[in-house]
Amino acid sequence: MAVPHLMSGHDLAGLALANRVVMAPMTRSRAGADCAPGDMHATYYAQRSSAGLIVTEATQVSPQGIGNPGTPGIYSNAQIAGWHMVTDAVHGAGGRIYLQLWHVGRISHPLMQAGGALPVAPSAIKPDGAVMTWDGMQDFVMPRALETDEMAGIVEQYRTGAANGRAAGFDGVEIHGGNGYLLDQFTRDGANRRNDIYGGSVANRIRLPLEIVEAVIGVWGADRVGYRISPFQPYNTMSDSDPEATFIALTAELETLGLGYLHVVEVSAPGAAPPDASVTEFLAARHALYKRIRDIFSRTVMVNSGYDRARGEAVIEAGAADLVSYGRPFIANPDLPRRLVENADLAAPDPATMYGGGAGGYIDYPKLMD
Length: 370
Fold this sequence. Notes:
Blueprint: E1 10-12, E2 15-17, E3 21-23, H1 39-47, E4 53-60, H2 77-92, E5 97-102, E6 120-121, E7 130-133, E8 136-139, E9 144-145, H3 151-167, E10 172-176, H4 182-187, H5 202-205, H6 207-220, E11 225-229, H7 243-257, E12 261-265, H8 279-285, H9 288-296, E13 300-304, H10 309-317, E14 323-326, H11 328-332, H12 336-341
Parallel strand pairs: 3-4, 3-14, 4-5, 5-10, 6-9, 10-11, 11-12, 12-13, 13-14
Antiparallel strand pairs: 1-2, 7-8
Helix pairs in contact: 1-2, 3-6, 7-9, 8-10
């Protein structure tokens, strides 16, 4: 059997992917006041449809889940219609696309919430820093801790978002369980200090994420559901006293549920190789947790964290992952898989247009000339 590589095809639980280069979810903040995608979104994603799989930007499952201006939702008819334009465009170009389901939890502000409500969280712990709102940057506020009897409503938000994603024509969904947003807040004990059945022990802290996974599986079937984790990501004031124990337990439960894939953000892992390390050094330095996750999770494992071509090829060829997701390189290189296989120079994105604006810096990056 041939050794797989970045450009070889992959069977994602019955969904045939043309290659193993995934477009990672990236917030671009181009949705309108109704949080609905438009024509530009359809063009943007279709331009990048040579990726084996596209995972959309994080998409809030309810008005409560919004964090920043310009992020899209999946809870209204207008949003479903907008996303359907996107999936039609991607499928028309031969691509595959999953919707990332998102609730930011405490990473919001009353200016972004209906009626000026407080953002919700597992515990009333204020994150450090500030957040962009409709009225500019604002310091984070102390969130409101969710009541135990509100959890069913959170699960229902995800169930509805999953059903709406299916109606919008997606190939599947990824649940965002990382980067310091609501499900990550419940999972890691730096943000979860509850004393009910959703806090304390690891089993309790992963209870809500697993209830949500089961609800989404009820809509899509396990094969078409992915889950994203970021065990060592400190972003949004996140920490855990024992990330190995926490994420091994979560991985084992996701394996039992038969999830289609696990998306692992490796950033900030202890022992991670520096950017100038050789490929051999890089593979040797990957944290032991990732090796254990790979051993436990028997289906597709996707990795993410500043991968270039050489490291992407190495992690696939070593069998340490099945797919590699690339973020920023896809912004300025809509034909990234071709550039990787041809070892072509990569264009650099314009930082000024990454988060918001119009067509400039969004759909005007050129492809390679034939």
